[in-house]
Design goal:
By secondary structure, the chain is of the alpha+beta class. The protein has 5 helices and 3 strands; from the N terminus they run H-H-E-H-H-E-E-H. The model has no long low-confidence stretch (mean pLDDT about 95).
């Protein structure tokens, strides 16, 4: 069992990595298949997307539903914990929107 020393430690363990917050953002508007997520997140590799989805599923943030058809259809959606986490990340996204020009300019110099 993993022990965390504070809530922020636990939260960062769940959303750590470049793609996890973006996966949550993409799923916030509704369930998605893997291919849809890949198209919505340019630059993510199949391997990283699969790995992060598995980790988010393990942590109870994402629900994976397999529809028994040929070929198999897999749909991902947020769990109630995932929805509350996405809501908690929204202010961070708003901050990024507000400061994007300044951040881009600083990184360009």
């Amino acid at each position: 069992m993993t022990e965390f020393f504070c809530g922020l430690d636990a939260a960062v363990a769940v959303v750590g990595g470049k793609w996890k917050p973006l996966i949550l953002w993409a799923l916030s508007t509704g369930p998605r298949r893997t291919g849809e997520l890949r198209r919505e997140l340019p630059g993510v590799s199949e391997k990283m997307l699969t790995q992060h989805l598995r980790e988010l599923e393990r942590d109870g943030i994402v629900h994976r539903e397999v529809h028994q058809e040929v070929p198999p259809k897999v749909v991902y959606s947020l769990t109630p914990a995932g929805t509350s986490l996405e809501l908690a990340l929204r202010p961070l996204g708003d901050w990024g929107d507000d400061h994007m020009p300044t951040i881009s300019a600083a990184r360009a110099s």
